[in-house]
Write a structure and sequence with these properties.
The chain is an alpha+beta fold. Helix content is 29%, strand content 29%.
Length: 197
């Protein structure tokens, strides 16, 4: 075998290995890309720790009410559900400026109870799942114990309430098992319902 043939064979093996590696990494990359676009959104029943530097009376934990609001001294009622901790922190700082100039406010989520998804239908353990991290559809199905033998894996749906209306996403589990159409394995938002007919 000549040096040129040896070099071409080596190059082809390298390219084949590179293509195979990319194919194996793609599902994880899709999930990571979706997750980067999702900052945690506060939900009802979450517990927030709000503190104002050098103000002991303004350091407390507050429970997010079912209506998505909280009450905080000198700030009053503020709507926090669906917002990020940073957005809430900025609004509290802004409202406090009148009483505490240059206030240094910190808002952190002390207890996550607001991220809840539901899995219904032909799964082994249907129900409500309150989680401390984001999950995609396949992970939610796993939490529900997987599908029963009677499940229609090609006709699953994800129901989501968005801007006051119901949105439906189609999900074909058979495609996912074959490593195809992976973009349909979306990260679920709080309140999403996975329906397995």
């Amino acid at each position: 075998m000549s040096n040129v043939e040896f070099f071409i064979n080596k190059s082809l093996r390298f390219v084949s290995l590179l293509v195979l590696s990319m194919a194996l990494l793609m599902p994880g990359m899709v999930f990571a890309q979706q997750a980067r676009g999702l900052e945690y959104r506060i939900g009802p029943e979450d517990v927030l720790h709000i503190s104002v530097w050098k103000e002991k009376d303004l350091d407390r934990k507050v429970l997010v009410r079912p209506d998505g609001g909280i009450s905080f001294p000198l700030v009053g009622d503020i709507q926090v559900s669906g917002r990020t901790p940073l957005e809430v922190q900025d609004e509290i700082r802004s409202r406090l400026q009148r009483y505490v100039p240059d206030a240094e406010v910190t808002v952190s989520v002390d207890k996550i109870s607001g991220y809840t998804v539901f899995v219904l239908g032909e799964v082994n353990n249907p129900g409500q799942f309150t989680l401390g991290r984001y999950v995609d559809v396949v992970q939610a199905l796993t939490l529900a114990g997987g599908t029963t033998p009677y499940a229609s894996e090609r006709n699953m749906q994800i129901l989501r309430r968005q801007d006051g209306r119901e949105v439906t996403y189609r999900f074909d589990f058979r495609d996912i098992k074959r490593g195809q159409q992976l973009e349909q394995n979306i990260i679920l938002q709080s309140g999403d319902v996975v329906v397995v007919p």
